[in-house]
Amino acid sequence: MNVTELLGFPADARLLILNLDDFGMYPAINAAVVRSIEDGIATSCSLMVPCPAAPAAICLLRDRPEIPFGIHLTLFCDTTDYRWGPLSAAEKVPSLLDKTGALFTPKEVPTLLAQAHLDEVELEFRAQIRAVVDAGLTPTHLDWHCLADGGRTDILEMTVSLAAEYGLAVRIWLEPALGRFREQGLPVVDHDFLDSFSLDLDGKADRYARLLREVPRGLTEWAVHPGMGDAQAQAIDPGGWRVRRTDYEFLISSLAREILQEEEIFVTDYRAAQRIWPGP
């Protein structure tokens, strides 16, 4: 069986996981994520548990149990003046912090990966997962914020073990992990993964429309980052709010919905994959 059949779709289906990352980062993202799912074409999201707007996002999810979501395992802080830290006590995860005692920025990925102790990464990941479970929510999968496939082989393997412990799927999109998990009969993407921050702002709506029409047979995943782009967002996220606003505008557009219907593309989420990934 190919991956689309594993997930319960026809063998020749064009299948797209359209997941919204960074839920919980700040209020304008929360609002855009919910609307992009309820009124747009998106189907799931990933929650950044340590962020200031995560409690509000958890409330939104609790009021909307029909929205499938994953945990966007977070070891970085993206913003300068709007800060968050680890859920774990700083003295328990010193290798995850910079010289000032703060989380690293995404630009400092190599530094974090060079110094992070696996046991401290696991402690923090467990804290983020437990915060969601203790809130009475049931996630579908684990993925990482700014770390493709965990960034290191040992982090990937530890995360996969955590996912099995909690009965969750895992977002995998790079070789060699893709090939290994595919050989194990687990549902992973067939095609290149799209991160919306990689798209140019100029002509972005046309680019999105073309990419959507060109979704191939098999399983594809897009990680999209919608935000409302209000004044608060512009102050918090000067380098990212335009990416998020243009993502949001396409997700809720009538054009996006029309293309999905015309091209007969199935937009799905991680619930079917969750049933196939190893559980406890």
From TrEMBL:
It comes from Fodinicola feengrottensis. Its cofactor is Mg(2+). This is Chitin disaccharide deacetylase. The keyword Coiled coil does not apply. Signal peptide: none annotated. CDD domains: YdjC_TTHB029_like. InterPro entries: Glyco_hydro/deAcase_b/a-brl (IPR011330), YdjC-like (IPR006879). The keyword Hydrolase applies.
